[in-house]
Design brief:
Length: 262
């Protein structure tokens, strides 16, 4: 890696952090890095993750993005991406302000609670049962520091996979024979449907996404640990987040209620 790229990584990290703190988006950053350099984008992400940790924020999990084949095709990639979740991103089920974010959108997905460290490579979806404690319906608040959401995979990876926040519904024990791909999802705002889909929209099965993340995390020297929350990826199209009352319905799971304020 050249000195120019190393300097660019630091510059981009500063730009993205400033954008999030000021809530003023920046132009796409991809032109500042070699074309399609996803590894450099992850280095940007790691710099800002480390910065937040030094400031006292606590890592509590990961999120998986780009789990839709249609979105992957749109961005010209053949793999998902991931970001890091911090304690301040967990909105619980209390009202939260849209104005505290940059350009938020919302999508419904499954959340998993890791019960046992995943430190071995090569775990397939069926191997995850021994490592998962619980599963829940969740809402991810996706938020981009890139102006007008003009992103490709380099932009979103550098920007911590466009992570903004999340809300998790009541946890249910994870059962080995649970059928997640067939579960229907419905997301409503003030009683009006704004998104719908199936569990299979997430790489055919949300467990495929968690397996991918587990193996990539081990390969990168940062394995999934017990107690982490994993957001597995959207079950339907994301939609703009505006003030209102939201309900996430996923078949067989308790309803998730959340309120966004202006």
């Amino acid at each position: 890696m050249t000195a120019a790229v190393i300097d660019a990584i630091q510059t981009i990290a500063d730009q993205l952090m400033d954008a999030r703190r000021s809530r003023r988006p920046v132009p796409p950053i991809r032109s500042q890095l070699p074309a399609g350099d996803i590894d450099a984008a992850y280095q940007v992400q790691r710099l800002n993750v480390a910065r937040l940790e030094r400031e006292g924020h606590r890592r509590i999990g990961r999120k998986i993005g780009l789990t839709s084949k249609a979105v992957q095709k749109q961005l010209g990639v053949d793999q998902p991406d991931f970001g890091v979740l911090f304690d301040f991103m967990n909105f619980g089920r209390s009202p939260f302000a849209v104005s505290a974010l940059v350009a938020p959108r919302i999508e419904a997905e499954f959340a998993f609670l890791i019960g046992r460290d995943i430190v071995a490579e090569g775990l397939g979806p069926k191997d995850l049962a021994a490592h998962l404690d619980a599963v829940a319906a969740s809402a991810e608040i996706v938020d981009s520091a890139i102006d007008r959401w003009d992103i490709n995979i380099v932009d979103t990876v550098a920007d911590n996979a466009s992570s903004g926040g999340f809300v998790v519904g009541p946890w249910q024990p994870y059962l080995r024979d649970i059928d997640l791909p067939a579960r229907k999802m419905r997301l409503t705002r003030n009683g009006e449907e704004v998104s719908s889909g199936l569990g299979g929209a997430t790489l055919g099965d949300p467990l495929n996404a968690v397996s991918w993340l587990a193996n990539v995390s081990v390969a990168r020297g940062d394995p999934l640990r017990a107690g982490e929350i994993v957001l597995a990826g959207a079950l339907g199209p994301m939609t703009a987040l505006v003030a209102g009352d939201y309900i996430v319905e996923i078949g067989g799971f308790p309803l998730l209620f959340m309120r966004a304020t202006p």
